[in-house]
Structures are given as structure tokens and as C-alpha cells.
Amino acid sequence: MAQRVLIIDDEIDTCKMLVMGLKAQDFEADYALSGALALARIHTDPPDVIVLDLMMPDTDGFEVTRYLRSHATTEKLPIVILSAIARPDAEEEALRLGANIFLRKPIGPRNLAMFIRKVMEKTKSKKKKQSLCWKVIKHDKNCLKNRCVFLIHQSRGCRLASSDSISPLRLAAPPKTKSCVTPPVLCAPTASPSKPQSSLPRLKVTSAAPTQFCAKRL
């Protein structure tokens, strides 16, 4: 499918010449004779790339570039500046506002088509990288939300643990574990058989009379 180019210039002869030359280079080209008409057309029927002149009576190329870069729907639209201004400050200002490339008039249709293709390829590659990065970031966020893996450092080494509620990814501090030291059990000393204090024979006391006692060997 042919890429669509919108040429924005207040000189109709320049526009017609560029349209004819770009069509010969397999582009689908059209033009707008003022910045205001171009902005209205871009919003209703956005092209793939614009070729923009800087010096225009109503809305110049600087204003058009600033406007396009400040809106989400056109902030990535490739902008090729094609101007007869030779001042370095004009080129720096256009690039600062967001133009992709600055070309000076006059330029042949073949060279213009070559630069347009380069700009579009670079923009497409950048969009692809951004899309890939966004997919990776989105995937990482989902993984982080569902199951976040982080390192827990312990005195014995490092091990992997998981948590379902931690975000963002961080190193967790070692968990505070309660002391499991079993208190000593106090046991009552067991009674050991007492040894007789002396080796004297045991004596049995018997009563011989109400008022007299005598010892008898057992």
C-alpha cells in the first residue's frame, strides 16, 4: 500500500511539482496551501507523513509543528521540514519543536522520497521498540502483581521465596524469628536410699515394768 504524504506549502507551484514527483516515486501525495487548512485536514484524514514549509502567512511551520507535537493523536506523526530558510537557528528551532528532519529547498523528488522513506522507517522502528518495551513492562507488572519473586537473605545463605502482595520488586529483610529455646525443666531430685548412719545394731524397746525400760538385742 502506498504511503500517504501531505505537502504543506503556500506556493501552489511548489506543491504541484512535489505531488507529481512523489507520485512518480510510488507515494500517494496531496497538498494544503496553509497551516490552518493542513491542521484541519490532518485531524479528519491523517496522512502517514507531512512535508512542511516554515514560512507561511497565517500559521507558519513552527506553529504547525508545535501543535502537532502537543496532541496525543499526532505526536508521533513524521514531520519533514522543507524550507528555503538557511539560518541555523531556524533549523535548530524546528528540530527542537519535534521535526524529524530539516531539508533545504530546492530538492529533487527522488532525493525527497529517499529522505521520507528513511524518516518513516526510523519512526516505524522506534514505534516497534516502544511497543515491545511496553509489552515487556506490562508482562513484568502482571507477573509482579500475581507472584513477586525476591531474595531473602539469611545467615545460612540466600534462598528464593515468594509473595503475592509485594510491589515493587525489592530485597526483603531477613524475617524476625522467635526464639525457640526450650527452657530447662526443673526436676525434683529423686530420693536415694539412705544409708544407715552407723553400723550399731537396732534396738527394740520393750517395757518390763511400768516405770522401767530395758534394751533387748534383736
Describe the protein's architecture and organization.
This protein is of the alpha/beta class. The protein is 37% helix and 23% strand. The strands form three sheets. The chain has a five-stranded parallel β-sheet with strand order 2-1-3-4-5, sandwiched between helices. A two-stranded antiparallel ribbon has the order 6-7. A hairpin with a 2-residue loop joins strand 8 and strand 9. Helix 1 crosses helix 5. The longest helix has 38 residues. The chain starts with a strand and ends with a strand.
Task: Record keyword descriptors for this entry.
5 helices; 23% strand; globular; five-stranded parallel sheet; alpha/beta; two-stranded antiparallel ribbon; single chain; 218 residues
Radius of gyration: 48 Å
Shape by Cα distribution: globular
DSSP, total strands:
9
- How far from one another are the termini? 133 Å
Structural class from helices and strands?
Answer: alpha/beta
Helix content: 25-40%
Contiguous helical run count: 5
Walk across the major sheet and give the strand order: 2-1-3-4-5
Strand and helix order? EHEHEHEHEHEEEE
Average residue-wise pLDDT? 75
User: Which sheet architecture does the biggest sheet show?
Assistant: 5 strands, parallel
Poorly predicted residue ranges: 131-137, 147-172, 203-218
> How much beta, percentage-wise?
15-25%
